[in-house]
Amino acid sequence: MKACDFKIIKNLGEGTFSEVYLAENHTSQYPEHKLVALKRLKTDNLREEEIMQCFDEIYLLQRVKNSENVIDCLGAFRESNDFFIALEFADNKDLEYLFNEKRQNGLLFSERSIWFYFHQICAGLKELHEQRILHRDLKPANIFLTRTGKAKIGDLGLSRIFSLKTQLAKTEVGTDYYLAPERNICFGGYNFKSDIWALGCILYEMCTLRSPFNGEQRNAYALFKRIEICHYPPVPANYYSRQLKFFISSCLSIRPENRPNAEQAHSAARKMNQKFESLRAKFKKQFGK
């Protein structure tokens, strides 16, 4: 792959280290991906460890190839001082964008819609954890959506591989609202169950359109204290099932060992999705809607 293989259409967004463009794929590879998200890393102002973060993302994504629920990495190349990664393009923005649309229109998700998206997020996380990949920055902005109804986990730039011998990580990275209590370095480290905490935060936000710990925007200490004691407002009392509320509380257990693992979370979420899809099918059969 090289720069002339792609025609940039527009800028999709910018991150701390990179820009992302929508581009036409003119290579003979991956003909099913006519449009790609081309991620450009400007290396001239970056430290070596930041450049290596980009290489890590490629390696991680290529370990989960052709996934239904993880963004596919098509390839990478370097040109002058810039490094490019060609990624599968999700053509319906991301979950955070969808949350903002709901807020602006004064709408909440139906429980059926929640389980429809959430069981896919769980499936993607299960695949990552099966490959010993800890995401470390799971949040709505990193859940990408397609027009065919797929939800895909992306942006693995903060991920790392846990070897079979690795027990705990201690690096302070991620987005504050979704950090588990043990992510505070004083607590001695974290593991895969920290991703499950973030999963619980996402599920809560799907119900309320706000982070469970939103509100402490200027005071990092106050935010961490709320997270440390797991204090958050209840979800709407009569709108969602007790199973959904139990799932949130299980994922947001202060003690990591009390949270489900990714396989258990996926199994439970898939069953709830099947239940609501079955109810919908019965309703359509009975009322023709």
TrEMBL record:
Signal peptide positions on this chain: none
Residues of the Protein kinase domain: 6-269
Key word Nucleotide-binding present: yes
Cross-referenced InterPro entries: Kinase-like_dom_sf, NEK_Ser/Thr_kinase_NIMA, Prot_kinase_dom, Protein_kinase_ATP_BS, Ser/Thr_kinase_AS
EC number(s) given by UniProt: 2.7.11.1
Keyword vocabulary terms for this entry: ATP-binding, Kinase, Nucleotide-binding, Serine/threonine-protein kinase, Transferase
Residue numbers binding ATP: 39
Chemical reaction(s) catalysed: L-seryl-[protein] + ATP = O-phospho-L-seryl-[protein] + ADP + H(+); L-threonyl-[protein] + ATP = O-phospho-L-threonyl-[protein] + ADP + H(+)
Pfam families in UniProt: Pkinase
One GO MF term: ATP binding
UniProt family annotation: Belongs to the protein kinase superfamily. NEK Ser/Thr protein kinase family. NIMA subfamily.
Record protein name field: non-specific serine/threonine protein kinase
Protein source organism: Panagrolaimus davidi
